[in-house]
Structures are given as C-alpha cells and as structure tokens.
C-alpha cells in the first residue's frame, strides 16, 4: 500500500530509523518537529525512539488521535494500529517524563489524550502483537501506582510534585483488572498522572464493584458508558444508578441484556420505567442508546419521548417491539436524525412492513449503518427492500445475516448495493439453498455451520464478482456466522469464557442440591 509522504516525513523516517543516533540527537531537535518524528517512529515501530520522544515531550499537549491521524506530511492514518511495542513505549515514556529530573521547570505537558486509538480486527504492524483497550487500562493503572510508590520512596526534585498531567482514556474494567484500576483512581489526587475517564466499559463485574468504581471515575467527565457482559444490572439498579449519579455530558449509553422485561411489570415497575426515561431526558447530550436483548414491548415511547436531543444511534435488537413501538419510532423526532439503526431479531415483513419503511424513509438522508439480522427477510421481500434502501445514499454499512435468502436473491440485492456510493461494509447470510432442505429460521447454533461450504464459496465468489464488475472493490463483503468482530470481547474472551463456565457450574450445583433434597 503506497501512501503519499512529504519530503519532510521521508527525512523524519530516515532520522528515526537509526535508533541510537536519533536518541542521542533529540536534544538538538526543534520542538515543532517532535510530532513528525513521533509518527515516523510509530510507523517504523521504533519503540526506544518513541519512549525518548515522549519522555522529553516539549509541547503542552499530546493527542494520540491527532498525532497518528492523516496529516499533510503523511496521509496514512495510524490511529488504528494498536501496536503493543509502540503503545508500551509511549506509556512508559510518559511515566519517565515525570521522573526525568533534568529540567522539571521546562516541563509544559498538561494533557495527554489516548482516546483517539481505534481497536480494529486486522493489524498492519510488524510485531502483530496488539495492546487493546483492556491492556491499556491495565498498563496505565499499573504505571500510575508504581509512579506514586517511587515518588514516595525516592529523593525527588520538588518540581516533580508540581507536575500535573490529565491523561484522557477510555477505561475497560473487568474483575481481573478491577483492583489495580481502583487503586489508581483512589490515588489520583496525589499522582502527577491523573486518569481522566472519558469512556467506561465494564464486563464481568458484580453490581457492588460496578457502583463503587463508576463513582471513582468522576462521572461528570463521562461521555460514553457501556455496561455489557455479565453485569447483572436490572431496571431497579439502573434507576438507583441514575438517582445517585449525575452524567451531565453522557453522549452514549449501552445497557446489558435483560435490563428491562415488561412481561413481568407491576404498577411500581411502570413508574420506575417512567423515572428512568425522565432521568435520561436530563442527559441533554445523549445521542446514542443501545438496549439490545431487553423485552420492551409497547414501552419504547416511555423511554425515548423524554429525550431532549434526537438520537443518532439506536440499537433495539431483539427487544420484542410491537407495532406501537415501531409507529412511535417512525413518527418521532429521532427518525430524521438516526445515523445508525439496529432492529435485528424482529420479524419486520410480518409485523410492521409499512411502518418500518416509513421509518427508513425518514432517516434515509442521514443513515450510515443499518443492521437487520434475523428479521425473516425472504426472497419475496427483496424488491421492497431495494426500494426502501434506494434513498439511503449515505449508507456505509449494511448487515443482514441470518435471513432466509436464496443465492439468486442475494445476487439481485448485491447488484443494487453497488449503486450506493458510500457503502463500505456488507455482512450477508449464508444462502438458504446452501443449507439442507427444511432448515428453519432463525437457525440454532448447532445447525449454523451445517451448510454446503463449497457451494457457499462459489456464491461468495459470484457476489464479489458483481462488486468487482461494478468497480466496487472498496466494498468488503463477508459472512461472520457468529457476529461481527468485537475488539473488547476478543481481548477478554478467556475471562468471559471462564466466567460462563463458572456460572454454569454453580447453576448445575444448585440444581443438583435441589434435586437431592426433593429425592
């Protein structure tokens, strides 16, 4: 892959390629060249040079997203390279910036922003070893704690204690790194590196630990909150969270599966739901909401009507929405602002075809991502779907795996998809005719892989040929049978798996005990 580079950048690459020479010469380098040298070092994975650049950083701020993003000198965006060598060198360099006592009065650095780093599936760095969000959380917390211990024990220059650097980061906390992160947050006031949590994700945490750590993060700074796997947050806990903590700048909220279940609602629960809706209404910047795998039949209006700002992203996949819910969405102020919409797990053609297409027409001018997995979209619905998608000229991503479509219908659909100018990513189902006759949808996990793989490969080739002939090599088409890539799950899948086995074992033991008592 060739990327445009300026003569300045090529010179910077040549300079940092000799690590020993570059490190010795940094003292003679003009301050305004540090960002250029940092990106060149990152591209060439020169860990030692990265460390020394950060240790001697002469500027007021250090913004990873801007430093690694596309620039006039080098158009390649490196912010999706979570190279372990580079990131570890960067963070240890930050620690040593504080400890370097050569000239503390010259230290200008006030803000370090690590939030621009993007975790992606395919890495292009040579070392092929990544440092994901969880590992970055772990390392920064560890370095903050070690730094504080060292400063308390060593004879440091008094100027060192005057250093105060806000480190903006997206924290990812699980049971395994919980204690370390808590210690770093508790000692934030004393530590020169001050963790400022801008986004927070928690998996595999007890409610007690979640409530404790979320208060330590300083919720007044929190822009994104994700409570995902194995945090047993139910509606009463959510109400408690919103009543006890204020989130003035929260823009994005993800709630775990089964937070809501209207099938067992009482009058008290109805009031609780109303209260939660009102509390979300007070979050004036909230524009992204994910509530998948909750049962929200007939209650979408209760939650969304109090919101003062129209939503740009809504995930209500597998939420058992009824016609009233879909009608509310189609007619609400949110509809014309939705850039990302996930309605997976709803039988759209059977339950509310016209209302869905009304919603689609209202958001068509801004819609960038549409997910309709397991929606019972069949061959007879493809022409209608094409009609509905035609105005969506800004669509970049369309995911529709799990639908009973034949290879012929997929070819017809792909021919149309070539016409969407902004489209970049398509996730399509295994064609129905690749499965045994009589397969029922949605397909259970046990039967998911039992299809004619050779026939599927042939169809996939034909679909890619359609893209190729339309000069749409820029579109990536794939069939992720077990869901899209999730960097956070990928990074912590061992812990997640161990937790699930433990839960299953405990359930089995309880069942056995109960059964023995009955016997």
UniProtKB/TrEMBL annotation:
Gene Ontology CC terms: cytoplasm
Membrane-spanning parts: none
Gene3D superfamilies in the record: Ribonuclease Inhibitor
Superkingdom of the organism of origin: Eukaryota
Keywords: Leucine-rich repeat, Repeat
Recorded family membership: Belongs to the PRAME family. LRRC14 subfamily.
Protein name: Leucine-rich repeat-containing protein 14B
């Amino acid at each position: 892959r060739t990327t445009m580079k300026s003569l300045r950048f090529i010179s910077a690459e040549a300079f940092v390629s000799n690590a020993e020479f570059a490190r010795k010469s940094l003292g003679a380098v003009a301050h305004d060249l540090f960002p250029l040298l940092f990106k060149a070092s990152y591209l060439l994975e020169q860990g030692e040079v990265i460390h020394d650049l950060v240790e001697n950083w002469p500027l007021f701020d250090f913004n990873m997203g801007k430093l690694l993003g596309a620039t006039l000198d080098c158009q390649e965006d490196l912010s999706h390279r979570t190279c372990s060598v580079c990131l570890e060198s960067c963070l240890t360099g930050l620690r040593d910036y504080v400890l370097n006592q050569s000239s503390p009065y010259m230290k200008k650095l006030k803000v370090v922003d690590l939030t621009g780093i993007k975790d992606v599936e395919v890495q292009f760095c040579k070392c092929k070893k990544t440092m994901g969000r969880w590992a970055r959380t772990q390392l920064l917390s560890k370095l903050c704690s070690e730094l504080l211990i060292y400063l308390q024990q060593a004879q440091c220059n008094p100027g060192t204690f005057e250093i105060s650097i806000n480190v903006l980061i997206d924290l990812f906390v699980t049971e395994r790194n919980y204690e370390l992160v808590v210690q770093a947050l508790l000692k934030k006031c004393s530590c020169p590196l001050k963790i400022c949590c801008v986004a927070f994700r928690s998996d595999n945490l007890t409610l007690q630990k979640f409530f404790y750590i979320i208060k330590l993060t300083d919720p007044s700074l929190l822009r994104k909150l994700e409570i995902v796997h194995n945090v047993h947050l139910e509606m009463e806990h959510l109400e408690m969270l919103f009543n006890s903590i204020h989130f003035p700048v929260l823009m994005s909220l993800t709630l775990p599966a089964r937070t809501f279940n209207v099938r067992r609602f009482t009058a008290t629960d109805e009031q609780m739901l109303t209260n939660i809706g009102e509390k979300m209404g007070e979050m004036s910047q909230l524009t992204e909401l994910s509530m998948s795998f909750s049962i929200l039949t007939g209650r979408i209006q209760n939650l969304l009507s109090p919101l003062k700002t129209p939503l740009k992203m809504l995930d209500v996949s597998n939420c058992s929405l009824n016609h009233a819910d879909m009608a509310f969405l189609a007619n609400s102020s949110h509809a014309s602002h939705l850039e990302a919409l996930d309605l997976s797990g709803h039988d759209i053609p059977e339950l509310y075809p016209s209302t869905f297409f009304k919603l689609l027409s209202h958001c068509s001018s801004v819609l960038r991502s549409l997910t309709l997995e397991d929606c019972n979209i069949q061959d007879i619905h493809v022409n209608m779907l094409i009609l509905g998608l035609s105005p969506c000229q800004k669509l970049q991503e369309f995911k529709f795996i799990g639908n009973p479509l034949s290879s012929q219908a997929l070819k017809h659909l792909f021919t149309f998809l070539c016409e969407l100018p902004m489209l970049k990513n398509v996730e399509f189902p295994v064609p129905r005719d690749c499965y045994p006759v009589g397969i029922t949808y949605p397909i259970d996990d046990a039967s998911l892989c039992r299809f004619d793989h050779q026939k599927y490969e042939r169809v996939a080739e034909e679909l890619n040929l359609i893209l190729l002939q339309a000069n749409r090599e820029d579109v990536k088409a794939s069939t992720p049978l077990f869901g899209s890539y999730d960097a956070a799950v990928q990074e912590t899948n061992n812990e997640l798996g161990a937790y699930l086995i433990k839960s299953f074992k405990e359930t089995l033991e309880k069942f056995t005990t109960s059964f023995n008592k009955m016997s």
